[in-house]
Design goal:
The chain has 155 residues and is an alpha+beta fold. The chain is built from three helices and eight strands. A hairpin with a 6-residue loop joins strand 2 (24-29) and strand 3. It starts with 8 loop residues before the first strand and ends with a helix.
Amino acid sequence: MINFKDLPYRNGVGMMVFNDQKKIFVGKRIDNQKAWQMPQGGIDNDEDHVSAAKRELYEETGIRSIRIICQSKKEFVYDLPDQLVGKIWKGRYKGQRQIWFLIKFLGPQSEVNLNQGNPEFIEWKWVDIDELPNIIVPFKKKLYLSVINEFRNSI
């Protein structure tokens, strides 16, 4: 029997993408259509954080026209709820440790294309930064509040 608490964290990146109106990009997950999230994903073995952020952003949203404003000063960590450990990421991880990036979207709305091979989002929208904690899955709320706190004054 595997003790899920002994599993490692998955290394990942998160991207807070904002537009000219200072609204934040969120996508509604295909596998949990009650929750929205900012783009995020894992780091491949041969990647640095910046390359992973650009790749994941493109894979999830089709967005390439960007300027990276800054990188988080620290790593953020979240644990999966007990009912998801062992199911997500083929049961190899108990949660994620992430470096986050604040990214300015420079392209037209038509650049956003969620159909990039293995879509993760079914829908997308721009939201007010203060709306983020209210529309995400509860287990990521603390992480989102920390990311918001770090990036709010740089948008």
